[in-house]
Amino acid sequence: xxxxxxxxxxxxxxxxxxxxxxxxxxxxxxxxxxxxxxxxxxxxxxxxxxxxxxxxxxxxxxxxxxxxxxxxxxxxxxxxxxxxxxxxxxxxxxxxxxxxxxxxxxxxxxxxxxxxxxxxxxxxxxxxxxxxxxxxxxxxxxxxxxxxxxxxxxxxxxxxxxxxxxxxxxxxxxxxxxxxxxxxxxxxxxxxxxxxxxxxxxxxxxxxxxxxxxxxxxxxxxxxxxxxxxxxxxxxxxxxxxxxxxxxxxxxxxxxxxxxxxxxxxxxxxxxxxxxxxxxxxxxxxxxxxxxxxx
Length: 295
Prior knowledge:
By secondary structure, the chain is mainly beta. Helices cover 7% and strands 52% of the residues. The N and C termini lie far apart (55 Å).
């Protein structure tokens, strides 16, 4: 266990199991491990996390995935562990990402997009594993123009954990001197952690931040006391900074931390705003074509 004062230790509040998996579109078999509907302010600035796969996709001619749909008021972050994904949207952005890559789409004022497996991967088939995270935007930024960031594997810094314990990919935020390539609207960290069986990582985040540790594969212990299995996550108290992760098996873990957005949330399907009136306006704007359409 990390050797720090008890007052600086960030303590888990609860360990949550994820519900049974379900299909999103015709291509993504996911577990919704995190949801603002279920977890509320304890997860701000994050809204939702789906872990898809590993799933075997049989060869086909027609790409599978999610057809045209809108978003407003937040960002979608997709991390690819296996497979190949194509994105296109009504703002004119296009991206293709494969294992190790990340796409960070800011829907903000509104965008229509689709996410499907690439034609080459569709025809070949294979294993798919991905995570999609939704990140909230503060009210002042919810109606800014959409933007799209393709974060290729080679642009994401990798930090070696002490004593050969594993690695941390810094997608957003910072770890030591390493800074993630993602541009964010509020202070947050998104770390993709791999730990070897029997190894320990001692980490720290900012005082007052929400902290979430998500176990995608393997089994870990937090601060020497709380065991978290695969497809489970731990929510932490806001006070404190330091925490430790000890892996009992080779483990794949996501660490999410961020400054909470202390604002009301009104959400309906693909829209996350601050009031019900704003949700109604988002629906009207999509229906009237103001968010655009895909050609």
